[in-house]
Design brief:
The protein has helices at residues 60-70, 147-156, 164-172; strands spanning 21-24, 27-31, 44-48, 51-54, 96-100, 116-120, 235-241, 280-284, 303-307, 315-316, 320-322. With 327 residues, the chain is mainly beta. The strands form four sheets. It has a four-stranded mixed β-sheet. The longest helix is centred in the first third of the chain and has 11 residues, at 60-70.
Length: 327
């Protein structure tokens, strides 16, 4: 949220600037996958209108400019409202965010709490806790960003958040139906194409690609459209509410109002937390924590549900600008 009365002479980026955006021509593609996780199915034909998308995820430098201009305070910096979390112990309702902490040992891979810690003082300025900082990471993607934080930035910049269809179309880089954003081989010629986990997650991180955590947003080659970092590094928010699987004949288009489905669907709520009605949006792209033995979601078709109030050390975003006007 923005602090009341926060004023500055700084202005949002010029709405006509395109140097940090890439134009994606409209087209029809095969969205989803029938060969991996069930929520990616079924494959279905989708058409999108042309749009511009950020060349990279929003960086720490860009987010600093936004905060300096608006006084925005991210959700990770504000203690949770007890009314929204019935049953929570008052002393546990403090400002913070989820941080990946490598465990010494694990019992299976189903319980993510073995490596995720809700850490007091973790936020976009302090990605790994209050003693960390982003002083030399201006060109890394901003993290610990909840959905409303991403949306606030997008509106300030005169942009929007991408729909899931727009995001996936852009991520494919013109390679319709292929496994990855660069083809059907994870490491063509033994070359790392994205910042993902190498080794036995979560115990062994070999960092063969040169990065243990996030990486600069242009560290890896762009895709066929000239867009960087659509796969790996950080997950990215989209504007679509979560659903357990794709609707085969669901209408998809670019020129639509924000929140295209009008509101959260029943399956956008987390069934594991029936007492907490926090809807979920779709994340895309995977992150530096995705590994062949866990979360093989470093693919354009992959998707993940994220509560809109949640921020983590591996979730960021990018924006789009549409040339059309919704009716």
């Amino acid at each position: 949220m923005s602090q009341p009365g926060a004023e500055t002479e700084q202005r949002p980026p010029d709405a006509n600037r395109t140097d940090e955006m890439v134009f994606i021509p409209g087209g029809t593609f095969r969205m989803g996958s029938d060969h991996h996780y069930p929520e990616e199915a079924p494959v279905h034909r989708v058409s999108v209108d042309g749009f511009r998308i950020d060349r990279t995820p929003v960086t720490n430098r860009q987010f600093k400019e936004f905060v300096r201009a608006t006084g925005h305070v991210t959700m990770a910096e504000v203690p949770p409202d007890p009314a929204q979390y019935p049953g929570a112990l008052p002393h546990m309702l403090y400002a913070g965010s989820l941080v990946f902490v490598p465990p010494r040992r694990v019992t299976g891979l189903k319980d993510w709490s073995q490596w995720w810690t809700f850490m007091k003082g973790a936020d976009w300025r302090h990605p790994y806790g209050p003693k960390s900082n982003i002083n030399v990471q201006d060109n890394h993607p901003v993290v610990h960003i909840a959905y409303d934080d991403a949306l606030a930035y997008a509106r300030w910049a005169g942009k929007d958040l991408p729909t899931e269809a727009e995001w996936e179309f852009a991520a494919r880089g013109g390679r319709d139906g292929e496994e990855f954003a660069w083809g059907d081989v994870l490491m063509p010629g033994g070359v790392h194409m994205a910042n993902i986990w190498q080794g036995n997650f979560p115990l062994q991180n070999l960092s063969e690609d040169g990065f243990e955590r996030t990486s600069p947003v242009t560290a890896f080659a762009p895709n066929g459209y000239g867009v960087y970092d659509m796969i790996g590094n950080v997950w990215e928010w989209t504007s679509d509410w979560w659903s357990q699987k794709h609707e085969a004949e669901a209408p998809k288009a670019c020129c639509i109002p924000h929140n295209p489905r009008g509101g959260p669907q029943a399956d956008s709520l987390d069934p594991c937390q029936p007492n907490i009605s926090i809807p979920r949006k779709v994340l895309k792209g995977g992150s530096h924590l995705c590994a062949p033995n866990y979360c093989r979601r470093y693919r354009p078709a992959a998707r993940h549900a994220e509560p809109i109030d949640t921020s983590t050390s591996h979730v960021g975003f990018r924006c789009v600008r549409r040339s059309c006007v919704a009716e």
